[in-house]
Amino acid sequence: MSITKRVVLVLTIGLLTVVPVTYAQDGANLSQQKLEQYTQAQNKVAGISQEYRERLGEVQDREKATELRNQARQEMAQAVIATGLTVPEYNRITQAAQNDPKLRERLLKHQ
């Protein structure tokens, strides 16, 4: 699954918010460690997103759907933090990757 598709999955659940991009346009100041952490976080977030999308597809009650979305956000945030990144760092890298083909390519090499 491509980074863009994974980002869309995450955005549909609502973990991410748009934040200013602070990484250099080519992602040059993103360390190898941050790339690895991001890739780990992204894989975990994508799995959680998929799990909750399936669960949400089976729910018809609005309150239950809201509860599931909140659980998904919390689990995704915890998954990101467990990799050593903060949620704002994860969001900044995601946003930068959407706008920077070179960074996106670097991230794809780590998958």
How much is the radius of gyration in Å? Answer: 14 Å
Shape, please?
Answer: elongated
Order of helices and strands: HHHHH
* Global mean pLDDT: 81
Content of β-strand: under 5%
- The CA-CA distance between the termini, in Å, is 10 Å
Notes on the structure:
Helix 1 packs across helix 2 and helix 4 crosses helix 5. This protein has 5 helices and no strands. It is mostly helical.
Write the layout of secondary structure elements.
Elements: H1 3-13, H2 32-57, H3 62-82, H4 87-99, H5 101-109
List keywords for this structure.
DUF4168 domain-containing protein, mainly alpha, 0% strand, elongated
Could you give a short description of this structure?
The chain has 111 residues and is an all-alpha fold.
